[in-house]
Amino acid sequence: MASLRKLISIKEDEYNKINNYAQKERITFSEFVRKAANFYIDKQEEIELGQYLKENCDSVSKEEQADIENWIKELKNHTDYDFNEGSEITLEKIIQGNL
């Protein structure tokens, strides 16, 4: 695969910090930045839906939570409802629009 050259802007103290660490690891600045960026992306994509929602969405109010719990109770009282029916929703399915 072909390599590309890209220019980035970075504060001098940040460059020194990254470059010093890269030198300790015996890799180039570019290789460290590439590895760090890929590591960050992989970790962000691994976040489970619950974690994502916790970090990015507000909690429901107590009243709304009570409504949800009542709705679940009503569902459980219906004998024709199959709780084994359905599938897990993942962040990947949401992002890809595969619901």
SSE arrangement:
Blueprint: H1 12-24, H2 29-46, H3 49-56, H4 62-77, H5 91-96
**Share of β-strand residues:** under 5%
Q: What value does the Rg take, in angstroms?
A: 23 Å
Overall form: elongated
Instruction: Summarize the main sheet.
Output: none
How many helices?
Answer: 5
| Classification by helices and strands | mainly alpha
Mean pLDDT over all positions: 86
Order of helices and strands: HHHHH
Number of DSSP strand runs: 0
Distance between the termini: 34 Å
Count of structural domains: 2
Helical proportion? 55-70%
Which runs of at least 5 residues are low in confidence (pLDDT < 50)?
Answer: none
Description:
By secondary structure, the chain is mainly α. The chain has two domains: 37 residues; 40 residues, no CATH class. Helices cover 62% and strands 0% of the residues. One of its GO terms (biological process) is regulation of DNA-templated transcription. This is CopG domain protein DNA-binding domain protein.
Features:
single chain, 99 residues, mainly alpha, 2 domains, 62% helix, 0% strand, elongated, Arc_rbn_hlx_hlx
Q: Gist?
A:
This protein has 99 residues and is an all-alpha fold.
